[in-house]
Amino acid sequence: MHTLINLSPQEKKILQLISLGFKSKQIAEKLFISTHTVKNHKSNICIKLDFKTTAELNFYAFSNAALLQDLGGADTYLSG
User: Fold this and answer.
1) pTM value?
2) Three-class SS string for the chain?
């Protein structure tokens, strides 16, 4: 069982955006951070959720998209 409780608010936003199909470059633009920072956050998310690869992270995000959207916050970054 993966728990999101240990994720920072920024990591949760990134996970939400991944679940919506956004790539690192798009996430970086929406959150006004560098793609390097997005990749660092993804790496930290993988560590915290015990994923070995970003493919596992992506699968988790897509499989749990509804749950992740219930966390709120990502919709702020979807416009513009």
Assistant:
1) 0.84
2) CCCCCCCCHHHHHHHHHHHCCCCHHHHHHHHCCCHHHHHHHHHHHHHHCCCCCHHHHHHHHHHCHHHHHCCCCHHHHCCC
